[in-house]
Amino acid sequence: MIKNIVFDIGKVLVRFDWEDYLASFQFPEEETTAIAKSMFLSSNWNLVDEGRLSYEEIEQIFVDSCPAYADDIRLVFAHFGDCITRFPYTRHWISSLKQQGYQVYYLSNYGDFTCQYTRKDLNFCDLMDGGVMSYEVKCLKPDPVIYQSLFEKYHLKPEECVFIDDNAANIDAAKKLGMKTILFQDYFKAQKQLNVLCNK
């Protein structure tokens, strides 16, 4: 029996359009490509969500990886929260699930200063029963530790949970722990899949 719906946040409940955000600066193409590779496309981007380093330490890592564009990297990083905006369906979806009697949680790779910067776009969290962000436990999906932290914090049974995430590796990890899963593609498909899983 499904009692709990667990959501990823990025690209499921909020947009993360870093490509359009970076393009808005109208840097030369070569510079745009270099900055993308040194920041958003780099494995170092995980440091933003992991929560072990300060904003200044992460900024310096990005700058050191591409010193030729140091000033512009600092500018891009200073306002990167602008690429995160809430989807129009988000609050309605959560409210609808709550009205149907489900407990609703979030489990997301999300950084501390990202959270602070995008607080207005995360106002749907107030509708939810709680959740875990990666910076709080210094651990990223798909590491089983972050999933276990959610189960333990809210006394959840994995087999009573549906996990919705856009990342296949995160979905695989959730399955191994016993959760029902939906690989998110778009709102309407996910809603239909959720109805099937919940026998609606």
Secondary structure elements and their pairing?
Elements: E1 4-7, E2 14-16, H1 18-23, H2 29-38, H3 46-50, H4 55-65, H5 70-78, E3 84-86, H6 90-99, E4 103-108, H7 112-117, E5 130-133, H8 134-137, H9 144-154, E6 161-165, H10 168-176, E7 180-183, H11 187-197
Parallel strand pairs: 1-4, 1-6, 4-5, 6-7
Antiparallel strand pairs: 2-3
Helix pairs in contact: 4-5
Description:
The protein has 200 residues and is α/β, with parallel strands linked by helices. Helices cover 46% and strands 14% of the residues. It contains 11 helices and 7 strands. It has helices at 18-23, 29-38, 46-50, 55-65, 70-78, 90-99, 112-117, 134-137, 144-154, 168-176, 187-197, and strands at residues 4-7, 14-16, 84-86, 103-108, 130-133, 161-165, 180-183. Strands 5-4-1-6-7 form a 5-stranded parallel sheet, with helices on both faces. The protein has a two-stranded antiparallel sheet with strand order 2-3. Strand 4 (103-108), helix 7 (112-117) and strand 5 form a beta-alpha-beta unit. Helix 4 packs antiparallel against helix 5. The chain is elongated. The chain starts with a strand and ends with a helix. The model has no long low-confidence stretch (mean pLDDT 96).
